[in-house]
Write a structure and sequence with these properties.
The complex is a heterodimer of chains A (about 280) and B (about 280). Chain A has about 280 residues and is an alpha/beta fold. Chain A has seven helices and 14 strands. Chain B has a single domain, classed as PPM-type phosphatase domain (Phosphatase 2c, domain 1, 4-Layer Sandwich). The chains are: A alpha/beta (about 280), B alpha+beta (about 280).
Chain lengths: ~280, ~280
């Protein structure tokens, strides 16, 4: 059965983010009341995901390398986007990510004091990735870079749980049709299955959200249809996870999200790689 | 004729960590009120087994505290009593877990992991053995309590008398209910506490098993494999290498999930004749 490989330190998997950093990411989300730009919200989500992943891999003796992680940005230029000590590192073991945030912000939250009241608690919030919005949308180039990185990972770990690539974008590619690059990326396979490519479309329009549609769902525009066609079908574990979260899915549902909170996709990724096979 | 004071309960423990981990990283914790290994045990043998969750940190410490309290503390009895009693028992152990971490300088990710808590499945088994006043009848009895998928198998001859709390390989899931270091899910913990009580006979055997090997045993059993004979053979001349081979083979064939494994065999042997001079026929 595909997508069943255990994820362990001797057999890690790979998660790669492709983040649109084009100028239009400076606009707000179409469906959001937040004053934050799409770029800022995507940066927050990326940092939160990395934080959750590090905490998930943390054991008393340190962070176990269950995952290699990379973040590719595409806008005025295309390349691995983590900075500081991770500059130029490409796909990186999660323990190194844990050790190298750009900075650790402190935020205050109210927590239960155990006696019916609330107390302020300081929470550390590590930042690896700052918002950038500048230039065009060279998505095809980004998918090509992802293909190289994932190919290299699979060669090193031929029996791994297949790498997962999450592309977050708000607009049409400016460097040609990305379909062929997406197909080539999805065709890379470990013995446990093909690479999974998921797409998050953050539109500036106020169209209603669509989460994990099948081919029978009408999409609002040509570009959404293109991104849907580039997306992998959800794995069985992910379908089960989505249903547990109250999201309706079918056997043909794909990892495509339109105008919805990308947190839904992140949650799904976590469920899809969760405890059952993390060793 | 008078019976001997108590039944012999021989306890034998095997443990092997998940493939790719070191033995120190094994997060199963087992404790017996008797010496580990073959030992003649006093009446009131108490066993505690806890399986710390891989996805939490400091879960080995949590599992050890739970197993120890199931043997030496009040938790076992408390789990047979109302919510307020077992909640108080758990609260005491939770404090002990937090106390172990006090004063330690933790990196940001471990601070957050500790906030999420540690988790374990648990199994406690107590054997009692009482003689009637005239010393001619013996009442041998066991009680067990479990949360999650760490199992006890009660076997008579080659027959499974009871799989507890799970009876079929299909009953196992990736998300068993866990006992945590936080009280947030205590309101539903009550419905997940399972209890078992039975008399046992001379010759009965008991196998305590963490989830991967428990599921393997039940699957083999359903396919007609003489699994109890296999384990008893391993127990006859216990050798860790033989046990490791047995587990690695099952893993390699895909019959056993790669997880920490603890398997404890308890054999009940009741000496019929005894050492009481007054009663020796002469």
């Amino acid at each position: 059965m595909p997508y069943a490989a255990e994820i362990s330190r001797v057999n890690p998997t790979c998660i790669l983010f492709l983040i649109d950093q084009s100028g239009s990411m400076e606009d707000p989300f179409g469906n959001s009341t937040s004053p934050l730009s799409k770029a800022e919200q995507v940066a927050t989500i990326t940092n939160r995901f990395l934080q959750n992943l590090v905490v998930r891999c943390a054991k008393s003796e340190g962070v176990r390398d269950y995952f290699d992680v990379g973040v590719i940005g595409y806008g005025s230029s295309t390349g691995f986007a983590l900075r500081g000590a991770l500059e130029g590192a490409g796909v990186t073991p999660i323990s190194r990510i844990a050790a190298s945030p750009l900075r650790v912000d402190e935020r205050t939250k109210k927590t239960d004091d155990g006696a019916g009241g609330l107390v302020d608690q300081t929470v550390k919030f590590p930042i690896w990735f700052d918002a950038v919005a500048n230039g065009g949308t060279p998505m095809t180039q980004a998918l090509g870079l992802a293909q190289e990185a994932v190919q290299e990972f699979v060669q090193k770990h031929p029996a791994c749980f297949p790498p997962m690539v999450i592309n977050i974008t708000d607009g049409e590619a400016t460097d040609g049709d990305p379909s062929n690059a997406a197909t080539a990326l999805r065709q890379i396979a470990s013995s446990d299955g093909n690479v999974l490519l998921f797409n998050v479309h953050c539109s500036s329009t106020k169209s209603p959200p669509i989460v994990f549609p099948g081919p029978d769902v009408a999409l609002p525009d040509r570009f959404a249809e293109l991104l849907f066609s580039m997306s992998s079908e959800l794995t069985e574990n992910m379908r089960v996870g989505a249903q547990a979260e109250g999201i309706a899915v079918t056997d043909q549902s794909r990892g495509f999200v339109f105008n919805a909170d990308p947190v839904a996709l992140i949650t799904l990724l976590e469920i899809g790689t969760r405890a059952g096979n993390l060793r | 004729m008078r019976l001997q004071d108590h039944t012999e309960l021989n306890v034998l423990t095997f443990q092997v960590q998940k493939d790719g981990s070191s033995p120190e990283e094994c997060e199963d914790a087992f404790l017996s009120s008797a010496e580990l290994g073959n030992a003649r045990c006093a009446p009131g043998l108490r066993l505690g087994l806890a399986d710390g969750a891989t996805e939490s940190a400091f879960s080995k410490q949590w599992a050890e505290l739970i197993a120890a309290d199931l043997v030496d503390g009040a938790l076992f009895s408390a789990l047979f009593r109302p919510h307020s009693v077992w909640a108080a028992g758990l609260s005491r152990i939770r404090h002990a877990w937090r106390d172990q971490l006090l004063g330690r300088e933790l990196p940001w990710y471990l601070e957050q992991k500790v906030e999420q808590g540690a988790f374990a499945t648990i199994l406690g088994v107590h054997f009692t053995d009482r003689l009637s006043r005239d010393g001619k009848r013996r009442a041998t009895h066991l009680r067990a309590v479990a949360v999650g998928d760490t199992c006890l198998f009660h076997v008579r001859d080659t027959r499974l008398v009871r799989g507890f709390p799970l009876e079929s390989a299909e009953d196992f899931s990736n998300r068993p209910f866990l006992v945590g270091t936080q009280s947030a899910s205590d309101h539903v913990l009550g419905i997940h506490i399972r209890r078992y009580s039975a008399a046992y006979l001379d010759g009965d055997r008991f196998y305590l098993a963490t989830d991967a090997v428990a599921q393997f045993i039940l699957r083999e059993l359903s396919e007609g494999v003489p699994i109890w004979d296999q384990i008893d053979e391993l127990a006859e001349e216990p050798d860790q290498d033989d046990f490791d081979d047995w587990v690695y083979r099952a893993r390699r064939w895909g019959h056993m999930r790669n997880d920490d494994v603890t398997l404890v065999r308890v054999g009940a042997k009741s000496p019929a004749l005894a050492g009481d001079d007054d009663c020796t026929p002469g």
